[in-house]
Amino acid sequence: MVIVLRTGVPPEAIQQLVSVVDAAGGSAFVSRGVERTIIGVVGDDDVLANLNLHVYDAVSEVIRVTRPYKLVSRENHPTRSVVTVGSAPTLAHIGPDTFTLIAGPCAVETPEQTLAAAKMARRAGAALLRGGAYKPRTSPYAFQGLGERGLRILNEVRGEIGLPVVTEIVDAHDIDVVAAHADMLQVGTRNMQNFGLLQAVGGVGKPVLLKRGLTATYEEWLMAAEYIAQRGNLDIVLCERGIRTFEPATRNTLDVSAIPMMQSLSHLPVIVDPSHASGRRELVVPLARAGIGAGADGVMVDVHPHPEAALVDGPQALDDPAVEELGDACRRLAALLGRRTG
Ligand code: PEP
Ligand code: MN
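^ thats the input. predicted complex w/ phosphoenolpyruvate below
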């Protein structure tokens, strides 16, 4: 790191900082300019970061030159990772050489609705089935999901449809039951910084789909992934699902820049969710195309056999004709970009 000092700092104050760094096992190199003095510091970054050097009066700024996230950073892991979900023969791969479609109902409502949505997902070419049994709702009066019963429905549908299942966990108390039923655990937008939940999902040995928080920066998102990785689980897929902006015409604003940015900052796969990003059916396929074009490793969408009757997020759910269009766009664009589908 680099410590930039204020102007006119006396030599004793510089010596004090050098001693603090030395005492922590680091090495300090003082470089005196005409106007300013800076101190270059090398050593264990985590130890040095905890010295709170910015608190000293002599210090104007402390600049870290390494990333605060380590396990998920591309700096320390130049090859992009592949995350494998499910168990043979129903395996899905998410990574740089493939394009993976994830589709299913926003919420599991009934066995019939879930099976019908799963069939739509399969028709579109999905390699993974999504479906929420625990729903994080803005209103406590809204449908909260079927809970464990929903997980059992997903299990049955998985058996029938032959696709691995990703489902959201909203509370760390449910970790055992969700991990027992799911092939991949989803941490939703509203829980991206629920650090206890991140640690819990990091400890169960199943892949994790980590959605971006509504107002999270790239660094905050990667620090959230780092919580999971720190528990020994590097099977993490990042999902850009739109961020909150001033534009009310769409539910959120899909941040397409996040795809190449996150892929350059991290080795983890990055997918997009154009359904939750837009909240509008007619925008889902165009935004999916934009995501694929920007290099997304996959796309996740909501589908419903009867969107008008959906208990959650009906306006954004793809119906049969839209599913057809999405499947076609995914196959053609993925092939154009040299990615295998499935
Ligand atoms: C979802 O995928 O069902 C969901 C609730 O998404 P998000 O966390 O992105 O709002
Ligand atoms: Mn939803």
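Residues 83-341 form a domain with the TIM Barrel fold (CATH 3.20.20.70).
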